[in-house]
Amino acid sequence: MSGETLAQKILSEHAGRPLSVGDMAVINVDYVLAHDTTTAWAIEPFRQIAAKVFDPKKIFIFFDHAYPAPNLQVAEMHRKIERFCREQGVKIHYDGVCHQVMAESYTYPNTFLLGADSHTPTGGGIGAMCVGFGSTDAAVAMATGKIWVRVPQTIRINLEGKLPLGSYPKDVILGIAKELSSEGANYRVVEFGGSAIPDFGVPSRLTLTNMCAEIGAKTGIVPADSQTRAYLERQNRYQPFKELRSDDDALFERVLDIDISKTEPTLACPPDIDRDVPVSEMEGTPITQVFLGSCTNCRIEDLAVAYKIMKGRKVKEGVKFIVTPASREVYEQGLLNGFLMEFSKMGATIAPPGCGACLGRHMGVLGDDDVCVSTSNRNFTGRMGSPKAKIYLASPATAAASALTGKITDPRAYLK
Amino acid sequence: MRVWKFGNSINTDLITPGRHNITTDRRELAKIAFIEHRPEFAANVRMGDFIVAGRNFGCGSSRETAVSALKECGIEAILAPSFARIFYRNAINQGLVLVVVDEKFAQDVEESHQLKIENDEAVNLTTGARTPASISPMLLALKEQGGILEFLKNHKIDDIGRLVS
Questions:
Q1: Residue B165 located in a structural domain
Q2: Helix residue ranges, H only, A58-201
Q3: Fold held by A6-260
Q4: pLDDT at position A38 over 80
Q5: Are the beta carbons of B18 and A134 separated by less than 8 Å?
Q6: Per-residue pLDDT tens over the stretch A266-279
Q7: How many domains does chain B have?
Q8: A101 has a pLDDT exceeding 90
Q9: Shortest CB distance from B90 goes to which of A134, A147, A359?
Q10: Is B24 close to A49, i.e. CB distance below 8 A?
Q11: Of the candidates A44, A74, A139, which has its C-beta nearest B22's C-beta?
């Protein structure tokens, strides 16, 4: 018999019995997460099956997708959720994108997080199993504290070598999306390893796992290690954890070895995640907006990358440069260390923490002829506004360099 | 019935776009299905119609409104070579029939064709083509129960495995 995968171990622990790949099981969930769109749709299903939530402390409701409310309809949805949460004794979090805040303040290694949002895998950067579901499943979990799952196969991705100047984790994961395609990891867990991973801090890992949603994965995960410990210590919430990992003889469905020293600054061209090309190929394409934001890439480390490139320069006239810190914590760090002041002086518009322009509901909706370089995760037609607008996904470095020139720009020109 | 044909990677932003997806009324939701991608869809779709699509149908956002909207529109079944995971899961919970079919069979279907699902096969009544139709056993079991919520009104979640064992 072969060894066990990390996902198999975490699920077995939550089922209270040993599970094999392919088994179906009902498991206990440690956290249930939903936001201002998915909670609204969970309330009515919840009421059909329960009167009270199983444990108000394990339920995390966020207002992030459209907060502060941009219109009356959203305001009424918020009020509906607030009434529900008050009645149930559940706290609403108004502190930024749910995945970023969960990573900063709540998620622990080896836990299971059920999130009513597709980018829930983000928390896999902490070594937890964080899986996206719909509103009905969120309602079931809020009512019972449990969920049914099947134990998935695992694709193991080994990252080897060191990132060259100008390339970042976002470029790595866009390269992986190109290689695997937008459904290449459908239903699988993507587990990261290899000699480069010990050098990746948790913020970088969160970018990798976040984007696993875009290749169809059930989740992405980086086994918890000393970097995870360092991050939890930095966040003042370290508790000892087991460094769970896949057994040496675990059976992976597929193993990919990637030499990241060859990673170039990369763009995902509209309208799919797997249309990836080197930035140099699109260099000079005129743009109208740059969005530095989202759960993929607007942590303090991302602001630092962008600042390094833009320092002492100005946003190109005519370019809307929107900076939307992923969380209140990032926003406050950016205020304290001056990044946000500096960006503002350069001509950026600083938006309040949250999802912002990423999903086209407010704070940077694109018009027909807009061309946007975005550090977010989706370049689908109509994602950020008009179906005629174009969205190029890139690293914060490429976004920053492009904001300076008003054209798609390779960031290496500013890093010499 | 009629067939509505779609291409590869139809994401949930195309089915219920974020800017319109701000209602919790299922009937209102049915009106925004494919509002930008296929503006004539919502007004003309009828109970019992089929959607036939390419690979990775339902990718992207977890929004269950994509499933709810198509179910509310009266879609009988969606046939595609592959479906995205969360969309598939949401359809299982709501009992919206998703049928995994051979890619060539799906490609050859035209909107004027008549389709039928019988036993374990999808049949193109117009061309005579047949292909194995794979439907999740959990989907069929929960559809019979009236969806997962109906099941949970009478059973504990711990018993859900028995539906398919």
A1: no
A2: 72-88, 98-105, 135-144, 169-180
A3: Aconitase; domain 3 (3.30.499)
A4: yes
A5: no
A6: 999 999 999 999 99
A7: 1
A8: yes
A9: A134
A10: no
A11: A74
